[in-house]
Amino acid sequence: MKGTFLVTAGDPSSAARTGRIQTPHGTIETPTFAPVASQGTVKALLHSQVEELGAQVILVNAYHLNLRPGLETIAKAGGVHSFISWPKPILSDSGGYQIYSLSPLVKIEAEGVRFSSHLDGTKIFLRPEDAVDIQRTLGSDIMMTLDYFLPYPAPKPKMREAVKLTSAWARRSKDRFLEAETPQQLWGISQGSVFWDLREQSIQDLLEVGFDGYALGGLGLGEPKSELMETLEKADLLLPKDRPRYLMGMGYVEDILEAVARGVDFFDCVLPTRNARNGTLFTRQGKMVIKNQKYAQDFRPVDEGCGCYTCRHFSRAYLRHLHERDEVSSAVLNTIHNLNFYLDFFGQIRQSITSNSFAAFRHTTSAHIEEGIT
Ligand SMILES: [Zn+2]
């Protein structure tokens, strides 16, 4: 273990904490949000814009990059940082989620997963060792283990099998990871949905192997909110305090806040960027659907309290016009606002924990969200 995570402050009223993850490409202040850049780009934005908005880390996808442009190309370019020209930390997802959600033919075997590419049907066999090798070649700062992912709801016996396989693959991933010296980190992914006995087993198995960080996978898929929160609370007690915790793919502000209160440090989600392209904007008062007729002559900014480029210069009426005309700038301006909203929100979370006011921040934010806007 490299001792790459340092807790810097804790909230007395909850398990929320701030921390720092050290990587070869810089420090990540937590709790943090990683904008999704599956193909090596945050859709609709330039890297310079993503950096200006305050992103500290982006998430690329090993599944997509391995298929196209292919590892050879990225290796020739000198790794993923160099290929995409992003100087800050990068987390690469192993691609498990994409295999199970995109591929038309998936066959799970003890040795690995057999699937066909969603692009051209090419048959691919991916072992956990391959996922490590691919991410090593990418040169991402944080690599994820290959897990076995099931959609929700899954019957318990099937989930038990998924946990068993995920644990075995985690062990093999770590063995492969240890074969060569690298400054990269390897984080393990637990499964088990909201069956606590299975989730507990999964986490225990990962702890036995030992990882630089621990992810909670397969959550936020429609399971009851109370069960999800209970799972996070119990996981918080089980996970070591000196390792970052990553709740994969969860993106609603209210859920993020509650997850932070339960000790989660790292988040990613397509929500702010995907919704921006669909014309749904996040504001302190809730979601705004910009295509609505009522904004046609509304010359106020999207969010009067927002300092982003979009809100400083453009009205709801203009953004609605761009969206209705299907202009490229609609996606750009909406994404700037939504990503600013998320990254600013995380800045406020960190600030409130550091200044001992997280409880008040949590309370007022939840109250604002409940009022709604659309
Ligand atoms: Zn804005």
Explain the overall architecture.
The protein has 374 residues and is of the alpha/beta class. It is built from 14 helices and 16 strands. The strands form four sheets. The chain has an eight-stranded parallel beta sheet with strand order 4-14-13-12-11-10-6-5. The chain has a three-stranded antiparallel beta sheet with strand order 1-2-3. The protein binds zinc ion. Residues 302-303, 306, 308, 310-311, 337, 340 line the site of zinc ion.
Itemize the secondary structure elements and their pairings.
Layout: E1 5-10, E2 17-23, E3 26-30, E4 32-35, H1 47-52, E5 58-61, H2 62-76, H3 80-84, E6 90-93, H4 96-102, E7 106-108, E8 113-116, E9 123-126, H5 128-138, E10 142-144, H6 156-177, E11 185-190, H7 196-209, E12 213-216, H8 225-238, E13 245-247, H9 253-261, E14 266-269, H10 271-278, E15 280-283, E16 286-289, H11 309-313, H12 316-324, H13 328-354, H14 358-371
Parallel strand pairs: 4-14, 5-6, 6-10, 10-11, 11-12, 12-13, 13-14
Antiparallel strand pairs: 1-2, 2-3, 7-8, 8-9, 15-16
Helix pairs in contact: 2-5, 5-6, 6-7, 7-8, 10-13, 12-13, 13-14
The structure holds zinc ion.
Structure keywords:
374 residues; alpha/beta; 8-stranded parallel beta sheet; binds zinc ion; 14 helices
